[in-house]
Structures are given as C-alpha cells and as structure tokens.
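Appendix B, record 7
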Amino acid sequence: MEKARAELREWDDRFERYDGNNPDKYQSQIRSACRRVRNIEDELKRTGVIPLTEYEQLCAALDKAFPTARSKQIVEYQGKCYKKRYLPLDTSRPGKTLYRGQGGYSR
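Structure tokens (predicted):
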C-alpha cells in the first residue's frame, strides 16, 4: 500500500511541477494510481488488516439492515434517520460520472 501511495505522490508531484499548457497531462496516470490505492485499501479493510472507520461500520450495518434501500431513500436505524446516497468513484473533467461509485448514508 505504501508503494502505491508513493507512486500516487510521484504522479501528483510531476503534475505540480509541470509548467506546460496541457491541463490533462498525467491525469490518466494519477487516476490509475488513485484506483490502485483505493483497491488495495478496500481489500485490506475487507480482510480486516485495516480497521473500518466508524462511518464505514455504520454504512455496513445500514446496508445489512436495509439491503434493498434505494438512492435517496430515508431509513430509520436505532432512532435516527439516514438517507441512502451514491457517490461516483471518479468523474471526468467536465464533472460527469465515469462509473458508479459506492453507496453511503447521510443523516
């Protein structure tokens, strides 16, 4: 995971040092490195090597309690209301969703 994060920092540094006029320079490499870090982190969390955050534990409990909850649906759990929402994992430069992300909840 540290190796993947170092690679991401390297691409970010290259982009920061770039003084040309191409705003897309290194963007595909940066996105690829971000995906690699995210995939490694997700796998480590899934196997229990890295503990889940409090929010991730709550989302897991809500997903287990409400497996058929749809986007923007409000559910009540332990006396509190939560709204199901989906966030994209990545977006294009104009802000369009490239592929569907993971679900989460907001209060």
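Remarks on this record: The mean pLDDT is 86. The longest helix spans residues 27-47.
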